[in-house]
Automatic annotation (TrEMBL):
This is GNAT family N-acetyltransferase. Gene3D superfamilies: 3.40.630.30. It comes from Pseudomonas jessenii. InterPro entries: Acyl_CoA_acyltransferase (IPR016181), GNAT_dom (IPR000182), Ribosomal_N-acetyltransferase (IPR051908). Residues 36-182 form the N-acetyltransferase domain. GO terms for molecular function: protein N-terminal-serine acetyltransferase activity; protein-N-terminal-alanine acetyltransferase activity. One of its GO terms (cellular component) is cytoplasm. Signal peptide: none annotated.
Amino acid sequence: MTTALADWKGVPAPTATLLEGRFIRLERLDPARHGDELFNALEGPGADPKLWDYLPYGPFPERSVFNDWLNNHAASSDPYFFSVIDRVTGQVQGILSLMSIVPVQGRIEIGHVTFGAPMQRSPKSTEAVYLLAKYAFEQGYRRLEWKCNNGNARSKYAAERLGFSFEGVFRQHMVVKGQNRDTAWYSIVDSEWPAIAAGFEQWLSDENQTPDGQLKGLVECRS
């Protein structure tokens, strides 16, 4: 589709250091403040044994190797990493990033989503993605991407539940940990975001979040 964008001037690169939500807050990754709790969340007792299956790094049985990985991430501007902190307990429970950042085109991706077991399948994981998506579109980005290994059923399900549209598969896109990766591509564009954002807001609202769970699912809140 061709659309005239004569006044397009690009958008700024991410600079946020704190994004506040109801259940969690996102803080710019700081190994000195977040490292101990993050290692425990991702590699400690009760950690998800499948967490690293489709990521290009991990697992990290040695803390020194984890520290090197974390320090490299913290120093990076692309990917631009955040730690996820539970607002009730103050504990760090995961990380995720904005990445593949192309301000001149208004294109950005959410990736490196790595949540400890207590965050998975919880309002906290949904809100973490919502906060990054909201920030990206508020900055003026036109396109938000989600990519994953085409064999990663959990990530593909999450993308569609979160409102991303499937765009296709790049066959033989990468070699990861000695294995071929076909990559599934998903996106949200700016014209779609208001309706998707409204669904997130309804799903996260006090009226929908009860002690017994959610009254409506996220997909239902968008319909």
